[in-house]
């Protein structure tokens, strides 16, 4: 299954051409859609919009909108530039994500392409795009794929012996999302073990770059940035659920059965034979990082992304080195792609875009028109619909707020309950019934009871429930 089989290559190219065309059409529809497609998109847009107005996004978490910033700020900053220049829209953040998705694809191509192995490279690129762990983030207004691209670029430069040039990209990755630790940490460990004093020098330069940057951001945020980062990790630790982690890990393995299996085998064998290299070390560290961060609902997507990308890269490297097993391993990759592609097509059908989104466009438009009549802070499950219409949320992240009220007790729900009882919130917008919102841990039972007693359902634009004071 390589260059000496032109018929097979031709069949694959025809299939992949259709596949990439479908992906491009899907990406276009998602990027240009005017409303929120994913729960965190509105959260990210809110902070990007705030930065575009030179506001401090790291605020007191006990004051409205009770906003804990879960991520380091580079993506917000990058998106804010486009918002400042061209206006408020989800478009800019999605274009940034799509651009860095293409960068990630290019880096994977450079990692895996070998003369006589175009077949394997094309399959691996298709696996990257169709991977259920990765695809949802390739075109969303979210920080994850941008952080991954910076991390992979730093790794590529490091393996090309541009060790010190890799440091800025590792920093950009960590300042986009702080959990992308595996690759820079693997490179630091490898450098120290293999080169001794030069490795320690590399570590010193890395630390002398990141520490002042952290302190400077903390200074600009009125000494709240580090507090937010510590509290976010503290809250994550309190929410840790080993059953959820195991379910997430099993889902990831199912979606990446052969790439992860091959990569894990290769990495363990390299370590066992004391042939330490950055790639296998990064995979094992990334697996450990998912154990720490991947024990929450929804973590299968954003916290396993790095592990999925590393699995694909290492699989390509391994196959290029074992000619005797190349046909068998290539067949396994084709099987994984054959399984992933129907899942991708059924989940993200470009010809049936309305089924992609959980909220019909018509309902979002009606709610947007309805919001024109209201001022003041509003409670809404869909933060994006508030932000895009210039409305201020009363609680920015209902799930995060509920988590910190329930687990850490760092936020007091008493003020929220009193404001609901006093009917100070002009309108409440829910995407689920009150019972389901509580079940999804987006409201505490006490707040839900207060809403039920003091608000009534005025309109229902599926799935939006519009609640007004009684």
In terms of topology, how is this protein built?
Blueprint lengths: L5 H27 L6 H14 L21 H13 L4 H22 L5 H13 L13 H16 L3 H12 L7 H14 L1 H24 L4 H14 L3 H14 L1 H16 L5 H16 L5 H4 L2 H17 L4 H22 L5 H4 L4 H11 L7 E2 L2 H5 L10 H11 L5 H8 L6 E3 L3 H6 L5 H10 E7 L2 E6 L1
Parallel strand pairs: 1-2
Antiparallel strand pairs: 2-4, 3-4
Task: Evaluate the radius of gyration.
Answer: 23 Å
What's the overall average pLDDT, rounded?
87
**Main beta-sheet strand count, sense and barrel state:** 4 strands, mixed
The neighbouring-strand order within the major sheet is 1-2-4-3
- Weakly predicted, low-confidence segments: 348-356
- What is the string of helix and strand elements? HHHHHHHHHHHHHHHHHHEHHHEHHEE
Distance between the termini: 69 Å
Question: Percent of residues in helical segments?
Answer: 55-70%
SS-based structural class?
Answer: mainly alpha
Instruction: Provide the domain count.
Output: 2
Q: How many helices?
A: 23
Shape: globular
**Residue fraction in strands:** under 5%
Number of strands: 4
Describe the overall structure.
Strands 1-2-4-3 form a four-stranded mixed β-sheet. A hairpin with a 2-residue loop joins β3 and β4 (464-469). It has helices at residues 6-32, 39-52, 74-86, 91-112, 118-130, 144-159, 163-174, 182-195, 197-220, 225-238, 242-255, 257-272, 278-293, 299-302, 305-321, 326-347, 353-356, 361-371, 383-387, 398-408, 414-421, 434-439, 445-454; strands at residues 379-380, 428-430, 455-461, 464-469. With 470 residues, the chain is mainly α. The model is unreliable at 348-356 (pLDDT under 50). 67% of the residues lie in helices and 4% in strands. α4 (91-112) packs antiparallel against α5, α5 (118-130) runs antiparallel to α15 and α21 runs parallel beside α23. The protein folds into two domains: 6-32 and 68-353, no CATH class; 361-469, no CATH class. It has 23 helices and four strands. The protein is globular and about 75 Å long.
């Amino acid at each position: 299954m390589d260059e000496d089989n032109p018929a097979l290559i031709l069949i694959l190219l025809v299939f992949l051409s259709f596949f990439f065309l479908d992906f491009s059409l899907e990406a276009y529809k998602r990027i240009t859609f005017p409303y929120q497609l994913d729960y965190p998109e509105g959260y990210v847009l809110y902070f990007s919009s705030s930065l575009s107005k030179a506001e401090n996004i790291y605020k007191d978490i006990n004051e409205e909108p009770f906003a804990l910033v879960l991520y380091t700020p580079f993506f917000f900053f990058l998106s804010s530039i486009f918002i400042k220049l061209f206006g408020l829209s989800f478009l800019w953040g999605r274009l940034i994500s799509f651009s860095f998705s293409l960068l990630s694809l290019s880096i994977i191509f450079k990692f895996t392409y070998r003369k006589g192995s175009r077949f394997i490279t094309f399959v691996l690129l298709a696996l990257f795009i169709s991977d259920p762990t990765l695809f949802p983030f390739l075109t969303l207004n979210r920080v994850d794929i941008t952080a991954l691209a910076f991390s992979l670029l730093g790794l590529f430069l490091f393996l090309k012996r541009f060790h010190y040039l890799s440091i800025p990209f590792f920093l950009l990755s960590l300042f986009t999302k702080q959990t992308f630790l595996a690759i820079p940490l693997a490179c630091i460990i490898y450098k120290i073990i293999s080169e001794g004093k030069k490795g320690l020098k590399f570590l010193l330069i890395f630390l002398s770059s990141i520490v002042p940057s952290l302190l400077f951001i903390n200074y600009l945020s009125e000494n709240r940035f580090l507090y937010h980062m510590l509290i976010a990790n503290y809250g994550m630790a309190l929410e840790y659920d080993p059953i959820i982690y195991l379910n997430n890990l099993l889902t990831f393995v199912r979606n990446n059965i052969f790439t992860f299996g091959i990569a894990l085998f290769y990495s363990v064998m390299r370590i066992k034979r004391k042939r330490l290299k950055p790639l296998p070390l990064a995979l094992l560290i990334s697996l450990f990082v998912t154990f720490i961060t991947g024990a929450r609902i929804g973590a299968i997507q954003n916290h396993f992304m790095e592990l999925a990308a590393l699995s694909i890269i290492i699989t390509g490297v391994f196959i290029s080195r074992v000619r005797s097993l190349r046909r068998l391993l290539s067949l396994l990759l084709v099987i994984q792609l054959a399984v992933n592609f129907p899942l991708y097509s059924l989940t993200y059908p470009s010809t049936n875009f309305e089924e992609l989104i959980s909220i019909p466009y018509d309902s979002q438009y009606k709610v947007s028109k309805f919001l024109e009549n209201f001022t003041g802070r509003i409670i809404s499950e869909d933060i994006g619909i508030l932000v895009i219409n210039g409305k201020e949320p009363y609680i920015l992240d209902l799930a995060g707020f509920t988590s910190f009220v329930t687990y850490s007790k760092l936020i007091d729900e008493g003020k929220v309950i009193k404001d609901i009882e006093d009917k100070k919130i002009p309108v409440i917008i829910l995407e689920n019934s009150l019972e389901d919102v509580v079940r999804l841990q987006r409201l505490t039972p006490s707040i839900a009871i207060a809403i039920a007693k003091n608000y009534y359902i005025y309109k229902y634009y599926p799935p939006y429930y519009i609640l007004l004071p009684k």
